[in-house]
Amino acid sequence: MKTIYKKLLFLFLLLPFSVLAQSTLSGVVLDKTSGQPLPGVNVVVSGSSKGVATDFDGKFQLSKVVKGDKIVFSFIGFKSETIVYSNQTSISVSLQEDANLLNEVVVQVGYGTVKKKDATGSITTVTTKDFNKGANVTAENLLNGRVAGLSINTSGAPGSGSEIRIRGGASLSASNNPLIVIDGLPVDNNTSVGATSIISSINPATIESITVLKDASATAIYGSRASNGVIIITTKKGGKNLEVEYNFQLGIGKKVNQVSVFSADEYRNIVRVRQNQIVAADPSTGVNLPNLLGTANTNWQDEIYKTAEMVDQSLTVKGSLFNKIPSRLTLGKTYQEGLRLTNQFERNTVGLAMNPSFLKDNLKVRLNANYSNEKNRFADGVEGSAIRFDPTQPVYAPANTNYGGYFEYLATPNGAPITNGPWNPVAQLMQTHDHGTYKRTYGNLELDYKLPFFPQVRAVVNVGYDNSTGDRLKTVDRNSRSAYVNNVLRGVNETQSETKTNRLFDSYLVYNKSFSSLAVEATAGYSYQKFQRESYNSFNVLNPNAEAPDVTTYGDQVLVSFFGRTNLTFKDKYLMTLTYRRDGSSVFSPENRWGNFPSAALAWKLKEESFLKSSKLFSDLKLRLGWGVTGQQEMGDARFLYLEPYSTGNSNSQYVFGTVPYSVAVPNFRNVNIKWEETTTMNVGLDFGFFNNRLTGSVEAFSKVSKNLLSYAAISDGSNFSNAGFQNIGSLSSKGVEVTLNAAIVKSTNFNWNVNFNATKFERRIDELALNSDILTGGIGGGTGGTIQIHSQGYTPNSFYVFKQLYDVNGRPIQGAYADINGDGIVNNSDRYIKYNGDPNMTFGFASNFNYKNLDFSFNMRASLGNHIYNNINSVSAYYSLVQNNTVLGNVPTSVLDTNFIQPGSLGTQSDIYIENASFLRMDNVTLGYSFPKWLDGKASLRISAGVQNAFVLTKYSGLDPEITNNGIDNTIYPRPRTLLFGANIKF
Amino acid sequence: MKNLFKLSYLAVALSVLSCTNDLNTVPKDDDLFLSDDFFATEASYKQGLAGVYGNLSLTGTTGAGSSNISGIDAGTSQYGRCLWYMQDLSTDEVIWSYENDPGTADIQRTNWTASNPIFRGMYGRAMFQVALVNEYLRQTTDEKLNSRGVSAATKANVQKYRAEVRVLRALAYYHIMDMFGKAAFVTENDPVGDYRGPQYDRQQLFNFIQSELLALENDSNLANARANEFGRADKGLAWMILAKMYLNNQSYFGVAKYNECVTYCNKIVAGGYSLATSYRHNFMADSNTNSAKNEIIFPIQSDGRTTQNYGPTTVIINGEVGSIEGNGAYLGVGGWGGALRVRKEFGDKFADASFANDARKTLITAGRNPIITTISDRDSGYVITKFTNKTSTGANGSDQGFVDTDFPLFRLADVYLMLSECQLRGATGVTATDALGYVNSLRTRANGQTIAAGNLTLDFILDERLRELHWEAHRRQDLIRFGKFTGGSYNWAWKGNGVTGIAIPAFYNLYPLPAESIAANPNLTQNTGY
């Protein structure tokens, strides 16, 4: 082969160029309606094997073309165009969208793909071109606000993970996190030591598409882990042509606002007000608070933050390796600072994809290999102490040499700290060095082989591997107030590490055959997955009373599954999908470990019916019905429940006989009957397109019922080794409606405007609780073990459970006065009632993309209506009496001026006055960009952009930010910065 | 056909890799075992014994913040702490400043309901103790020991361990019987899982505890008083539980058993115990080694290094640190900013000048108003310094957060006062001279003024018990026995949620069973009034 090739080359060299008139054609392919370049268009010389695809700017270069060659331009969703080569050096071709083919988008459905138009389940795919713009350091933010029914709540911390919920989650005590699948590999849902989140190691620049599977007919193929939906992340494939893309983004983030407390001068007044109150109550008091005031003017909520810089770069090179292996290499480097002093996130990634074909394209190989190296400096929250710290005290006190020159409350000059004094929050941040590294290697190798002896059948093997090592070293300076333990400035030195391995083996056969009016696709396969985990914690080695260093080896978690799927298409109008998965899990006993998860879906393409076929109004109409059963097995650390486990005590949990401490051994809670939690979902959806698909969208309604909930519920005392534990009791249901609309409002050569809108409404209800017994949840700050929420039958999980505040005739709240709800004459714990919950009534997402010639402008917004927050900061701190903080002073929230509360009283922190409506409208991102399509004499293209991340929030919520996790309990959060972004994108 | 054959061959080849046996995973950690693997070594029997005892001190296996029961904050669920809240916080002895700690407000204002998490903690913790004992008895039957080939020496030891855990089960049922008056009855013969034990009423529980302890009293496997290792039960503990039950038999069932009480108190007195040389030794970081080791019949252990817990002594000593005084250094702890103060009536018991030098009076009164009108005002009300994390030689305990100080669950001084009380209540077996002698021996030990025979009355005994035994989890039981807990014959600050105290109905003499426990075991019925 090689010699033949060389000979040919030699022949070519001998031939004068003019004879063949062979030359190179370059050009650009554009969308006829929008005038935008079309990437990925196939450009082939008809009747030959010569061909290329256009790059991201729609450009191509076709060599060795001869006059008279017919060059065909084809692209999914567009009508093909053919031109005859007549020695042009460059051409511009415009392709017309083909409305009938527009829906030829392929979506991932787990162990395969389907064409979007043939999808029967509730599936949303967002691809590169529709991803959110702006600073998206973690992958999930690429589609925040873009998918109805999907909520993503990311904290302000750099590289932070998110609380991801699909349709609100289906569980009560078990996990509500969706299953995340990266290139066919389901990943572990626990954040590792040293890392910031489970998907922070993925470079978003490597992602081609993210598919969200919402209903059971789509997710049931993932069986036991699919009750909370599935998110499938697919990385970019290799390319045949050499393409280079470089992305650069610079961000500068600032604190937006702060919890409203008194400024130093206002505070001086408040201290006097409080002093007068004290004297009024007890004229003989010896307390003199104003004497405790300092002379400084410190805004502690300014001092603990800094400007947060971000630099995000990625370089992608695509091309055919050895002319045979389409490959992609992506290098990423992300540096992001947090607002909190010292907090930073750094990520270096390498992603390699290869997808060659062998054996006459019968064997398709797909390799994805990713390496990520995260370096973090963590900073624990000090917002609480910054809110409370006396604003008249300074940050620094040079005389405190034993405390690094920071101001601290000391009993003697530069000596021991006072008893029960607060700690300087700035010093806490600056004197703590909490570094983590996280190295992760993950990827998969997929072999897809079309059987030569049975061409209707493909055999697919997919092997996945995910291995990570995390390390974290936390040291606290010896000259730090927080290191003062047991009368000695000891410092902290604490090491943690963790190793995790996740191995996957999938194999399945796919049978594909079309009969006259029936198309059949059947898949049957087997999957094996094993998770292993081991961790180490030294605890503070400088404190002799700290727990002794210990290694924790988690039991292997193994999942063995058999699955099958059949897609039947009749007359291209009636579609049916049946799936079945049988999962065996090591979490349950041999009798209970096998779960069966079936699903069925029907779809009817009404548009294909004769009565709509010629409709000008409708360009698409499809009705979908789905039903399915999925499972849940995540119970956190509850392990080996079905066996008879014993735990032994750590070095701090011993009992002394004589003089010898013995590590205690106690049996753990058991449940031999523990089994799958099962969720049954019904889904009905209507996909539609109007006016030649200028307006498309869908409406969905769903109903989910989870039964045999893995409830952490009370058990008969004395019969087991706890008074509560995981049992399969109770049921939870959720119902909802989702609407998605996509519209091309303006569509022309120079000017385009596309918008995407989605709205979600859902409601979760507890239908049955174990023993019909309420469960208190929602731990709050202030008080040890205090709770503000309840699981109660007939209500949303984690509803707020509060006392009803009484008000005087002027509408002022009366301190300590609450309604006697049960009318027994005593106001006590029996008088709490349920008021609101953290779930929104409705959520909305809106994205707009606007192009005029080379200028682009886009923004995306999200809104939430009816979500409520318990303002835990006000509930524990907004009292005049807290102006005194033991023997020193403390700031309080300014809301004390509204309530005039002096003391919280015995029930005060649970007053409904602290439940606030936290509806909001947030502008996540605004970006303005300008493209130079013919940069460097047409050799490259350049787009520069500027934008604002977290541009604004409109809300009536009195706290820092209405968008919080923690089921709506706001006990200080990591604030989200407002970030100015500057970006450049260069393509060669 | 041939192709189909090839296809099925391929299918088999692909699924031959299936390894369903891998689903049988087992623990790999060095702190987690399956029961049979755990008991494979002979040393494990003593470790298991430590597990049963440990439940009195520890709330979980991974430190003070862990808990093997739920429905209550982990640290608060400690056995002695719940006991202390229910026996002392509900009385005239103490106020807890941080009423947003769930359950504390209801208890100290005596207006509790069945949803109080501390009741759930107490009942759950004590019933967990029962479950642990039952499991230990099941794992140490002759049959099990033989099947594991346990050596004769270990077998002999295990017989002792078995006797001891039965005392602990009796202790747990005694506490439940005293406070809740009923419980689910579960023994080692019942299955593990979701077995719903039948409800035993107070008399049934009493009878069970009595029969167990009477049997153990005569069982040579239970060590004689003071003959066992520190930290382990002996006949002294068994006698003490019996004595306590007989002392309160009149208030439990209306039948006096003061003679029986005296019988068992006398056994204790004859058992070799002696008063600590100093009153305060009983409440110090080294009470396990100083002279208090002769006085304390049974402690709830605490150690700043090996036995960390948020039990009664850690709470008391950190709580004693005053908001104004900041006297953590004196007590050997960091302190919790004035968490605990005493009520006005407590201070009144020491008001007489005769107590000026009494070691039992540890009140700090300077700059403090004895009347607490606002509970969260930590500057009001006197504070005390009875318990300390300092040793008898003045050294600090090993940790400034978790104290080394054990909680004296039962001690000889209590027995002395019980004997005096029984004598005053007409019991035989103790003379009036003895009764006066016991009281005065305690006063002498505390450098207090002795009393004359004419002053020795039942009312005096109740007050003297407060002076001697305050904050040692006896007060509620004592007030009930004297008919002063409920009703209006004695109102103290914040009783019935009134600043100066309001009468409360008699049903408060029993605590309600936790609502969750009744829901989980429908055999249980709620106490009257709740």
Description:
The complex is a heterodimer of chains A (988) and B (530). By secondary structure, chain A is mostly beta strands. Among the domains of chain A are: 2-97, Carboxypeptidase-like, regulatory domain (Immunoglobulin-like); 106-247, Ferric Hydroxamate Uptake Protein, Chain A, domain 1 (Beta Complex), CATH 2.170.130. Chain A starts with a helix and ends with a strand. The model of chain A is unreliable at 1-20 (pLDDT under 50). Chain B is mostly helical. Chain B has a domain at 42-222 and 493-530: Alpha Horseshoe (Serine Threonine Protein Phosphatase 5, Tetratricopeptide repeat), CATH 1.25.40.390. Chain B has 20 helices and 7 strands. Chain B has a two-stranded antiparallel ribbon with strand order 2-6.
What layout of secondary structure does this protein have?
The complex is a heterodimer of chains A (988) and B (530).
Chain A: H1 2-14, H2 17-20, E1 23-31, E2 42-45, E3 51-53, E4 59-65, E5 70-74, E6 81-84, E7 90-95, E8 106-108, E9 113-115, E10 123-127, E11 150-154, E12 162-166, E13 179-182, E14 185-186, E15 207-213, H3 216-219, E16 230-235, E17 243-254, H4 264-281, H5 300-303, E18 308-321, E19 325-337, E20 344-354, E21 357-358, E22 363-378, H6 383-388, H7 425-430, E23 432-450, E24 457-476, E25 484-485, E26 488-489, E27 492-514, E28 518-537, E29 550-553, E30 557-570, E31 574-585, E32 594-605, H8 610-613, E33 618-632, E34 645-648, E35 654-657, E36 660-663, E37 665-667, E38 677-690, E39 695-707, E40 710-714, E41 724-728, E42 731-747, E43 751-768, E44 775-779, E45 787-791, E46 799-802, E47 805-807, E48 813-818, E49 833-837, E50 842-852, E51 855-865, E52 868-871, H9 872-877, E53 884-885, E54 888-889, H10 896-899, E55 915-917, E56 920-934, H11 935-938, E57 940-955, E58 969-970, E59 978-987
Parallel strand pairs in A: 1-7, 13-16, 52-58
Antiparallel strand pairs in A: 1-4, 2-3, 2-5, 5-6, 8-9, 10-15, 11-12, 13-14, 15-16, 17-18, 17-59, 18-19, 19-20, 20-22, 21-22, 22-23, 23-24, 24-27, 25-26, 27-28, 28-29, 28-30, 30-31, 31-32, 32-33, 33-38, 34-37, 35-36, 38-39, 39-42, 40-41, 42-43, 43-50, 44-45, 45-46, 46-49, 47-48, 50-51, 51-56, 52-55, ...
Chain B: H1 2-15, E1 32-34, H2 35-38, H3 44-54, H4 79-89, E2 95-96, H5 104-108, H6 117-139, H7 142-147, H8 152-179, E3 182-184, E4 199-201, H9 202-217, H10 235-247, H11 249-253, H12 258-269, E5 296-300, H13 312-320, H14 328-331, E6 340-341, H15 344-349, E7 407-411, H16 412-424, H17 432-445, H18 458-469, H19 475-481, H20 515-520
Antiparallel strand pairs in B: 2-6, 3-4, 5-7
Helix pairs in contact in B: 3-6, 3-8, 4-6, 6-8, 8-9, 8-10, 9-10, 10-12, 12-16, 16-17, 16-18
